[in-house]
Write a structure and sequence with these properties.
Strand order of the largest sheet: 1-2-3-4-9-8-7-6
Helix content: 10-25%
Number of helices: 4
Mean pLDDT: 91
Bound molecules: manganese (II) ion
Number of domains: 1
Low-confidence stretches: 195-204
Largest sheet: 8 strands, antiparallel, barrel
Structural class: alpha+beta
Distance between the termini: 65 Å
Length: about 200
């Protein structure tokens, strides 16, 4: 596992993001979903594996509805400490606001111990077919990440499995609060209403 791509892309003298250090959870594997208002609003889905966070950018956000197959673009490994990162990234790579949308621990479907789990997960990652159980506040139960064949190199699908946590309708944006820094930003930076036709006639 290497964090060289992560490190090369960022300037840590200006960015508050954590530096590229390998580290691990003590007992259970961690996951985090960050909501990221960059040039486009998207979600970043990250699974701890062998001292780093394997990472996917999910444009539409994760879903608890098994019918939603969410495109997930694999991006560079992020350092373990990134699981706690939230804040404002200044001009440069990924500039914008990052907030934590959900976090918790995760396990393999077989619920192996962390050492066996990492070994199995690494093989599954290589095979392009990861199955796991999320124990988050929002995301719960079985999920899969499946690599798309013959498509773009890094394209995967994030899919909720049918289980007792699955729902028929889900919108990750509705699971946010008005006080979230990104929602505040979106409210404050709303496009001003276009002047009405009547007003235009009046002034001409
Ligand atoms: Mn991002």
């Amino acid at each position: 596992m290497s964090l060289s791509k992560y490190t090369i892309k960022r300037n840590f003298t200006v960015s508050p993001e954590p530096g590229g250090k390998i580290a691990k959870s003590k007992i259970k594997l961690s996951f985090v979903v960050q909501r990221h208002k960059a040039s486009h609003l998207h979600y970043d889905f990250r699974l701890e594996m062998e001292g780093v966070l394997k990472s996917w950018a999910v444009p539409k956000g994760p879903s608890m509805n098994p019918a939603d197959k969410r495109l997930a673009m694999m991006v560079e490994d992020h350092p373990y400490a990134y699981k706690d990162f939230k804040g404002v990234i200044p001009e440069g790579y990924g500039a914008g606001i990052v907030e934590i949308w959900d976090k918790g621990n995760y396990s393999t479907i077989e619920k192996n111990d962390a050492v066996t789990a990492e070994k199995n997960l690494r093989a599954a990652l290589k095979a392009g077919n990861l199955k796991f159980i999320l124990h988050g506040k929002k995301l719960k139960g079985e999920f899969a990440l499946v690599k798309l064949k013959g498509k773009q190199e890094n394209a995967w699908l994030l899919i909720k499995h049918k289980d007792e946590f699955a729902v028929d309708e889900y919108d990750s944006e509705k699971e946010t609060t008005a006080t979230s820094p990104i929602n505040k930003w979106l409210t404050e930076n709303k496009q001003p209403q276009k002047k009405s036709l009547a007003y235009k006639h009046h002034t001409s």
